[in-house]
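Input (EamA family transporter):
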Amino acid sequence: MKQYEVIGVIITLLGAVLWGVSGASVQFLSNFRDMNLEWLVTMRLITAGLLTVIYAWFRFGNSIFNVFHSVKDTLGLIVFGVFGMALCQYTYFRSIALAGAGIATVLQYLAPSMIIIYLLVRYGKRPSKGEMISVILALVGTICLMGNGDGLSIESFPLMVLVWGLLSAVGVAVYSISPVDLLNKYGTLPIVGFGMLISGIVAAILFHQPNSYAEWDIWTVVGCFNVIFLGTIVSFNAYLEGVKRIGAVSGSILSSIEPISAAFFGWAFLGNEFSLLGLIGMAMIIATVIIIAWDRQRTIKREVLAKLNKTILE
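Output:
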């Protein structure tokens, strides 16, 4: 492996680990400092969005505002921001507060399976064998998570944990699918930056929570720094740079360390506990990301070989 790729692996892992640190920090701020999650979500989106837009402007100039020249694309950006980023962030924070960073992050990783089901229902796209296995694993893994700590008992599992966790996965699915054309047309930084900024402004209007109501000390500041700066700006840019170096497939596989990171930090610093059944469920859901990535890589290789053979025959 070349040095260029080694650095790509390292910074991709760094981005995923920092996402896990951010999740554990949200749990700390909510459960140990009584922070208002609506305030935290709003501050995270506005601050990260504003800094990302400023950074994009320094790199690309006024061209970052081109998306607003089209009414259709502007509406698409608003949908991406509100129903993708804002929905994902708020529901993710809520599920963390109820179930801890590890379980909340794993539930969010149900998004790839949701996308597969959506493509089947919406466009009739039949899933491959790998995708079908992933959907089954995701379902069984979720059932196992519901038995974390109390045996396989649905009655003992807080329903709102599942509701917020699944809504978080829906948010991830929305912001994974909806902005594809916008990203290709206008670039990643402007779309993500404006998406976060717009969703933060909408959150501020809807929630109208100017106060954090938190118990402020040095650890509260550190937690906010982890969530807003390390877990958003640094992690996002590290992951993107890493993917640019090693490719999207390898990047998506390495990103599966995020829930492991979140679970570890939650266990090490916040006292989260996991039963064997819960750990098996987490492993199953994380495995779906790896299986889907490998399956896509095989599909890409088959398509390339098919085109090559066709060219040779012609």
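The two ends are 35 Å apart (CA to CA).
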